Automatic annotation (TrEMBL):
Domain of life: Eukaryota
Region listing for Disordered, in residue ranges: 1-25
Ranges where the 25S rRNA (uridine-N(3))-methyltransferase BMT5-like domain occurs: 43-193
Native source organism of the sequence: Alexandrium monilatum
PANTHER family referenced in this protein's UniProt entry, alphabetically: FERREDOXIN-FOLD ANTICODON-BINDING DOMAIN-CONTAINING PROTEIN 1 (PTHR11538:SF26), PHENYLALANYL-TRNA SYNTHETASE (PTHR11538)
GO molecular function list: rRNA (uridine-N3-)-methyltransferase activity
One of the GO biological process terms: rRNA base methylation
Protein name: 25S rRNA (uridine-N(3))-methyltransferase BMT5-like domain-containing protein
InterPro entries, per the entry: BMT5-like
GO cellular component terms attached to this protein's record: cytoplasm
C-alpha cells in the first residue's frame, strides 16, 4: 500500500501497539527496555518521504537497528518527494537498511529474498492507505472500506510472522478508521492481542 496519497482525516494519535500472544492489558515493553538486550530491531512499513524513519534514527541512534521500507521504487520515490534522496543517504550513513518496492502484505517474501534474518522486535505502519478516497469512503459497505479491511488483515498477518517472541506491531490510524477498517478483529484473527490504545494527542 502506498502512503503517497492519503485521504484527509482527523488528527491522528500515536501508534496502537499489538503484541504477539500477549494478554490484553499487559504493559507494552518499552523500546529502551528491549534495548537492554541489544539494539531494537524496528521495521518501518509503507514509508512515504522517510521522515518518520529519519526522525526515529536521529532520536535513538545505535539503540535501534532500523529497516525502512517504501512501496514505491527508489526512482519514483525520489521524483515524488524532494527530501527522499537526502533521507535515504542519512539513513544509510547511520547504519539503517532502506528497501524499496516492499509490499506491506508480503513482508516476509520481500524482505528475506537475500537470505538475511528478517525477524523484528517492532513493526510500524503509519497511516496505511491505498491512495484513493471516493465519496463513499465512510460507508461500512463501501468497496473503499472493504479494501482497507483487507489491507490491514493481510498486513497484520504478514507482520506477525516476522515478530520475535515479545514483538509488537504499531499501527497509526485516524478518526473512525480503526472501527471502520476492523482493526481489532483483524488483529485477533492474526493471533495478536492489544497492548495499548492511545487517543489523538
Amino acid at each position: 500500500a502506498s502512503p503517497a496519497a492519503r485521504e484527509p482525516t482527523p488528527k491522528a494519535g500515536p501508534p496502537r501497539p499489538w503484541g504477539r500472544g500477549a494478554p490484553v492489558g499487559r504493559r507494552p515493553l518499552h523500546a529502551m527496555e528491549m534495548a537492554a538486550q541489544g539494539p531494537v530491531r524496528v521495521l518501518a512499513v509503507g514509508e512515504g518521504d522517510l521522515s518518520f524513519s529519519r526522525a526515529l534514527q536521529r532520536r535513538f541512534g545505535d539503540a535501534v537497528r532500523l529497516t525502512a521500507t517504501t512501496f514505491l521504487g527508489r526512482d519514483e520515490l525520489v521524483a515524488r518527494y524532494k527530501s527522499a534522496a537526502g533521507a535515504i543517504e542519512e539513513l544509510l550513513q547511520g547504519g539503517a537498511s532502506v528497501c524499496h518496492g516492499v509490499d506491506a502484505c508480503l513482508l516476509q517474501e520481500d524482505l528475506i529474498s537475500d537470505g538475511r534474518d528478517a525477524t523484528q522486535d517492532i513493526v510500524v505502519f503509519n497511516h496505511p492507505h491505498l491512495g484513493e478516497a471516493p465519496g463513499d469512503s465512510h460507508s461500512p459497505d463501501s468497496e473503499h472500506v472493504r479494501r482497507h479491511c483487507s489491507l490491514l488483515a493481510h498486513f497484520l498477518a504478514a507482520a506477525r510472522r516476522l515478530l520475535t517472541a515479545r514483538g509488537q506491531i504499531h499501527v497509526t490510524l485516524c478518526g473512525e478508521q480503526p472501527a471502520l477498517w476492523r482493526l481489532r478483529p483483524a488483529a485477533s484473527c492474526a493471533g495478536l492481542s492489544e497492548l495499548q490504545c492511545r487517543p489523538p494527542a
